[in-house]
Amino acid sequence: MPSWIGRFLSSSVGKKTVMALTGLSLVGFLVVHLLGNFTLYTGGIEGFNEYAAKLEDLGGLLMAAEVGLFAIFVIHMGLALRIARENKRARQENYRIRATMGNSTAASRSMAITGMIVGLFLIVHIIDFRVPTLFGEIDNIGEAVVARLSSPVGATIYLIGILALGLHLRHAIQSAFQSLGLENPNWSPLLRLGAQTLAWALAVGFASFPIYCLLTTGAASAAAN
Amino acid sequence: MTASATDDLTLTVHVWCQAGPDQPGDFVTSEVSVSPDTSFLEMLDCLNEQRMAGGQEAIAFDHDCREGICGACSLVIDGKPHGPEQETTTCQLHMRTFNDGDAIYVEPFRAKGFPVLRDLVVDRSAFDRIQQAGGYVSVNTGSAPDAHAVPVPKPAAEEAFDAAACIGCGACVAACPNASAMLFVAAKVSQLALLPQGAPERDARALSMVEAMDGEGFGNCTNHFECAAACPKAIPVTHIARLNREFLRSSLMPRS
Fold first, then answer.
1. Of A10, A171, B150, B175, which is most buried by a Cβ count within 10 Å?
2. Nearest Cβ partner of B217 from A90, A111, A179?
3. What dotted CATH number matches B9-117?
4. C-beta neighbour count of B168 within 10 angstroms
5. Do A95 and B241 touch (CB under 8 A)?
6. What CATH number belongs to B124-137+147-252?
7. What class, spelled out in words, does domain A10-91+108-224 have in CATH?
8. Between chains, do B223 and A178 touch, taking CB under 8 Å as contact?
9. What are phi and psi of B155, to 5 degrees?
């Protein structure tokens, strides 16, 4: 390995570059995931199942994508833990009186916490759907999703996970652009607006599913009565 | 009664006192009456006179020019580096900013890269070492070059000058939740990256200065941007983006 790579990866700016690139890759995955989920709205449970079947048909390609995603996630999380540890060490004695200067946000200050909640949520999410489908324990993934999301406990877990994700992304996407040095008076305002819009769109888009499932099953059970 | 411009303010001042490096410290509380026209440092002078008259040791704090340009003064006042006023160093902060009867908490800058030496004095020589790692241009001495012999576009000159306004006080580090020194290093790298005089050493500069910064134990920038709000010279975080670009450029596309 060329020596510059080691130097790059161990430096603070290099670490932030990798955080930004892995983070944006994960955002890319989220966009695809959300678009795929929308088949539940456009085609109902059947449409969702068809989409899932098409994904499964990809076979080795899907497996490769999943392994890649997992690797990106592990790198992002591992580096985040390292950065958080180093940053804690950089101020060993805290201020007795703390005041924000006004530029940091609740989202920026809680990145480690929201990141950890998203990580835990991801484990729950994978155990809910990916592990059973991998072992053929779920025949109808669409029904399983709706059943999980229309139970109050399931919907609550998903909404908490998505809320943490939304907060994380609110800082993350625009922060990634800054870390990559993408700053220019002409298009920075547009990038910031785009980053905020994407963060909101992803959070609202994902949150719509548990809410939709809660409402429709509520209506269905009311109709059954 | 509200204090008019001539009425003295009576304040309860809690000042961080610490006998030496790695010693435990704590707030020492005193009452002090000063004119609203005194600067914050003059208020501390009055407090020290009071202490010495009472047989106590003076509280140590950094100061030099007292006109906002040297970067020697520091202090975190009520949780904010250089106090509550924007774009103001502690020496240019006046007591009229406070109200009669206020309690004021004064702490040193806190960062691993800025160890406390005593009371409110911290060792900021880490910044000198970062500068020495690349924050300069090598030029041949001799007669002064002709004016306009080296063309510099006006916007680049302006932006470089904005970055050059950095006085190296360290408020960016003090304000950063991660105690990162990115704004300081960014100002130094950015200033020279914008000018033709900085071009010959451009590749080495960002790499060496970031390496020196990391080596001093400062944290990683996570884009809170608290630094820019605390900076007495209002240096914007666009310079941090430029530092990131300079670092990437030097790492990925070195010219040699």
1. B175
2. A90
3. 3.10.20.30
4. 18
5. no
6. 1.10.1060.10
7. mainly alpha
8. yes
9. -60, -35
